[in-house]
Amino acid sequence: MQMRKFFGLFAALVMISSALAACGGAPAAKPPTAPAATVPVATAAKAPTEAVATEAAEVTQTGATEGPEGTPAPVATAAVTAAATAAVTPVAAGAADKVTLQLKWVVQAQFAGYFAALEQGYYKAENLDVTIQPGSPDIVPEQVVAGGQAQFGIDWMASLLATRETGAPLVNIAQVYTRAGMRTLSWKTSNITSPADLKGKKVAVWFGGNEYDLLATLNKYKLDKTTDLTLVTQPFDMNMFLNKEVDAAAAMTYNELYQVLSAGHKIDELNIIDYNVESTAMPEDGIFVNGEWLKDAKNKDIAARFLRASFKGWAYCRDNADACVGYVLKQDSSGVMTKEAQKWQMDEVNKLIWGDPINPKTKIGYLTPELFTFAADTALKFGVIKQPASPDAYTHEIWDLATK
User: Fold this and answer.
1) Residue 45 confidence (pLDDT)
2) 178: number of CA atoms within 13 Å, CB side?
3) From the centroid of its chain, how far is CA 96?
4) Is the Cβ–Cβ distance between 279 and 379 less than 8 Å?
5) Cβ neighbours, 10 Å, residue 339
6) pLDDT at 85 over 70
7) Are strands 97-102 and 152-155 parallel, antiparallel or unpaired?
8) What pLDDT sits at residue 80?
């Protein structure tokens, strides 16, 4: 692949190698639904019944990221900035600045706000020509952005911190998701009621930067990831879990949980480990850039315009979920995705961004210092990183410029 040829030695230094060394699995971006052959679309599943959806609601309502000792980490709320919801106002005329956004995974409602910004003309109004590049099992956004093949990327904070420790100068400029959607599912018949019960079990998880909440939790419970249990590279669907080939598996509230329920199962058949409750959940789906690229004043302006338009896109999806589902489905040239699956996902993603119930006063994209400190301390305490994370891992400068 061209990307791998470009990086050469660098690819060995970043997080894929660390994930392999830690867990012995093949790297993959977070695989919510689609097999590799269907990029950039997501695997569809039939919609759960209304009763199933009601049962699932109680699971997703526990998504507020918690701080040390189980205390909720502060999530900034204030009057939403005018920039995030204002009408489109074109910037000065001139050649549009071309930029690329590298997604963490295939096209789906997880990224709907960016497609809404494209479809609604918010990027164009900011004089930006934006290419949205889907992810795949072979693409790690940190590598793509660090190598200059994209100006913006989507990743999880734990992965960002781990990659920075290899020397890559990546910087979080906006934290779009303020709550963690990752869970570990097990059947009640497996008797896994606590992470401590994972000892001796076969546990599936995605690698390539998505395993860190699990690893932190194992560390918390003093479980050795190589001797106390068997870690298995999780495929791009829930079949391994549904067929009971593993005792537990990773799931996102907005995707894999839906797949399990869609297969005819009910919430009361499952035990669910919520990393928010365990105080080992770290922020997901932040926007990051190469810190070296950001040193240029022109690029700071480009980044601010990109955030401003993207925030408007997410605000649009908050208020027009069905329209945003349509924008996502429009990207599906194979026709694999279903409206029902993407609507479920859109609703759950909105909860992770805006809160539950949805709160229009949320300051979208603002990474509170308290949340960063909690994530950095959690990553260090539970072995995701070996040295304390530098505050340089994030900046409010671009968020401030975007929301003035």
Assistant:
1) 37
2) 25
3) 28
4) no
5) 14
6) no
7) parallel
8) 36
Only one residue has tokens 């099992």, namely 137
Distance CA 186, CA 190 (A): 7
**Cα–Cα nearest to 204, from 161, 165, 235:** 235
Owner of token pair 């932040």: 286
Q: What is the pTM of this model?
A: 0.78
C-alpha pair distances (Å), 167 with each of 22, 215, 385: 18, 22, 12
Paired tokens of 215:
């690893």
Measure CA 165 to chain center.
Answer: 20
Q: Round to whole Å and give the CA distance between 229 and 231.
A: 6
Q: For 249-296, where are the alpha helices, taking DSSP H only?
A: 256-262, 291-294
Note the helical H segments in 132-245.
Answer: 141-146, 157-164, 212-220, 239-242
Walk me through the domains of the chain, giving residue ranges and CATH numbers.
2-57+180-274 (3.40.190.10), 68-174+283-403 (3.40.190.10)
Tokens found for residue 348: 């759950």
Condensed to tens digits (0 to 9), the pLDDT of residues 159-214 reads 999 999 999 999 999 999 988 999 999 999 999 999 999 999 999 999 877 899 99
> Going by C-beta distance under 8 Å and a sequence separation of 6 or more, which residues neighbour residue 244?
187
Give the mean model confidence (pLDDT) for residues 319-337.
94
